Amino acid sequence: MSMQITFDANDPRALGAFWAEILGYREQPPPEGFDSWDAFLDSVGLPADERDRAYAITDPEGHGPRVFLQKVPEPKSAKNRVHLDVNVSNHADPLDDRKAAVATAVERARSLGATRLREVDEVIGYCVVMADPEGNEFCLQ
């Protein structure tokens, strides 16, 4: 069994590029036999003005789930009911070391267009809640 994570997006390619940087992913390669997505989309007859409807990124190691981004007309309007926790520190490390790793990841995410929402420092864990460029919440921990 495999899994895919799907995001609704106003700009699938831009949001996909953000998540590729955060996760260490890459654009999904085109189907076998095609040297580019445009060549594949030409072969199936998809008009150029409709090619911004979807974008996908994949784990280059092949371990993580595929991330699919699909264009929707409406903006995000409420808090996520599901969010991603991105592990940027080792949970076995001392808390100060984990906080330093998270702080570095927060600044990197901000440089890519994310927004820092709040810090969660509780007995059960530490993370910083962020929003991606389209407002989807995620945690760096």
Descriptive report:
- It comes from Haloechinothrix aidingensis.
- It holds the Pfam family Glyoxalase_6.
- InterPro entries: Glyas_Bleomycin-R_OHBP_Dase (IPR029068), Glyoxalase_6 (IPR041581).
- This is VOC family protein.
- This protein has 141 residues and is α/β, with parallel strands linked by helices.
- The chain folds into two domains: 68 residues, Signal recognition particle alu RNA binding heterodimer, srp9/1; 57 residues, Roll (2,3-Dihydroxybiphenyl 1,2-Dioxygenase, domain 1), CATH 3.10.180.10.
- It has three helices and eight strands.
- The strands form two sheets. A four-stranded mixed beta sheet has the order 1-4-3-2, with helices on one face.
- A hairpin with a 2-residue loop joins β6 and β7.
- It is elongated.
List keywords for this structure.
2 domains, 141 residues, Glyoxalase_6, Signal recognition particle alu RNA binding heterodimer, srp9/1, 26% helix, 2,3-Dihydroxybiphenyl 1,2-Dioxygenase, domain 1, 8 strands
Compile the SSE list and pairings:
Layout (H helix, E strand, L loop, with lengths): L3 E6 L2 H12 L2 E2 L9 H8 L9 E5 L7 E6 L12 E3 L8 H17 L3 E8 L2 E7 L5 E4 L1
Short description:
With 141 residues, the protein is an alpha/beta fold. The chain is 26% helix and 29% strand. The radius of gyration is 17 Å and the shape is elongated.
Going across the major beta sheet, what is the strand order? 1-4-3-2
Q: Which H/E pattern describes the elements?
A: EHEHEEEHEEE
Global shape: elongated
Q: Helicity range of the residues?
A: 25-40%
Percent range for β-strand residues: 25-35%
Query: Which spans of ≥5 residues are poorly predicted at pLDDT below 50?
Result: none
Q: Please tell me the total number of domains.
A: 2
Instruction: Tell me how many strands there are.
Output: 8
Largest sheet: 4 strands, mixed
Structural class: alpha/beta
Quote the distance from N terminus to C terminus.
Answer: 27 Å
